[in-house]
Write a structure and sequence with these properties.
Layout (H helix, E strand, L loop, with lengths): L3 E6 L9 H18 L2 E6 L13 H9 L6 E8 L5 H14 L4 E6 L6 H6 L10 H13 L19 E5 L2 H10 L3 E3 L8 H11 L11 E9 L3 H20 L10 H7 L3 H9 L3 E4 L1 H15 L3 E5 L5 H17 L1
Parallel strand pairs: 1-2, 1-9, 2-3, 3-4, 4-5, 5-6, 6-7, 7-8, 7-9
Length: about 325
């Protein structure tokens, strides 16, 4: 039987696609996922200065999606806490929780979600990440109503108990989540290397908390499902090429990298890096995807799988949701 399934959406902007259209696609996908009823939660990630990702204002997008869905939990995967004050995040997510009771999650990351130059534009001290453990505790205090700073409370936020999740791709996040007794979500959809070690450390060192009595692991994977294996393989190749284009575009803009250049890059170090990042990608027909999800869940020792839906085109992404939902219902 498959574990719980959830979704991570980056509000991806296609080539030459208006951002407004990409956000409309995100709403359509969220509503379809909500209707299908097979997915626990839908998360959005904070990234900055990335032309193909429209989820930079994460809490704003969460509010928009939560207002247009009914059942599915909506949250961050994650908010990069060093870019913000804990009080502001408590107020934002406290507001969301008051507007949508019982449906808001707050996943927290330590990385900046961008490059060094953009970090400076965010007015963030690069050393802010060092205070991440203390900032998580401060944020917990605001949301629980037991503030760590005398006389300072989050309104809204106080007493909402918005559940926190620690995101990571290394042992640091695993150890912190274990020490604080929080759920742990591993970003294996793009950073596969430390997955098994981090999960093992987290489970071995977990300390129960008021939020969580036993360890809870969410592992992320990319899923491309189609009615036949050939169509899925074609879509997976397009996803790989898009990743190569993105990686090469870090020195400029990916708009300058045409299809011939991408083909030439496929057998270079850039192509190898893209393939490695996509290690945990499951592509196939319904039977192949079912087998791949079960294998990945066992490999990751996961209680829940967080799936990205990277195929190009709204129709393909909708079909992926429908196929995966069918597997969950059948399994």
């Amino acid at each position: 039987m498959l574990p719980k399934l959830s979704l991570l959406d980056l509000a991806t902007v296609g080539r030459d696609q208006p951002i407004s259209e990409a956000l409309a696609d995100t709403v359509t996908l969220a509503q379809r996922a909500d209707e299908l009823g097979a997915f626990e939660r839908l998360w959005f990630a904070e990234h900055h200065n990335m032309s193909r990702i429209a989820s930079a204002a994460t809490s704003v997008l969460i509010a928009h999606i939560a207002a247009r869905t009914e059942r599915i939990r909506v949250g961050s995967g994650g908010v990069m806490l060093p870019n913000h004050s804990p009080l502001v995040i408590a107020e934002q997510f406290g507001t969301l929780a008051e507007l949508h009771p019982g449906r808001i999650d707050l996943g927290l990351g330590r990385a900046p979600g961008t490059d060094g130059a953009t970090l400076r534009a965010l007015r963030t001290d690069p050393r802010a990440a060092e205070a991440f453990p203390q900032d998580v505790r401060e944020l917990q205090g605001y949301l629980s109503g037991e503030t760590l700073i005398d006389g300072i409370h989050a309104y809204p936020g106080r007493g909402t108990g918005v559940p926190l999740y620690i995101l990571g791709s290394s042992l640091f996040g695993a150890q912190l989540a274990a020490a604080y007794g929080l759920p742990y979500a591993f970003a294996s959809h793009f950073a596969p290397d430390a997955l098994q070690q981090a999960v093992r450390v987290y489970r071995e060192r977990f300390t129960p908390s008021d939020q969580l009595a036993a360890p809870y692991v969410i592992a992320a994977a990319n899923v491309i499902a189609a009615d036949d294996a050939a169509t899925a393989a074609e879509a997976a190749d397009q996803v790989l090429r898009a990743r190569v284009r993105m990686l090469a575009g870090r020195v400029g803009t990916d708009a300058t990298i045409d299809d011939d250049m991408v083909t030439a890059l496929m057998d270079t170090a850039v192509g190898a890096q893209a393939r490695h990042m996509l290690t945990h990608t499951i592509a196939g027909d319904p039977d192949g995807v079912a087998a791949g999800l079960a294998e990945f869940a066992e490999l990751a020792d996961a209680d829940e799988l967080m799936l990205t839906n990277p195929a190009t085109g709204l129709d393909r992404r909708l079909r992926t949701l429908e196929i995966v939902a069918g597997l969950r219902e059948a399994g």
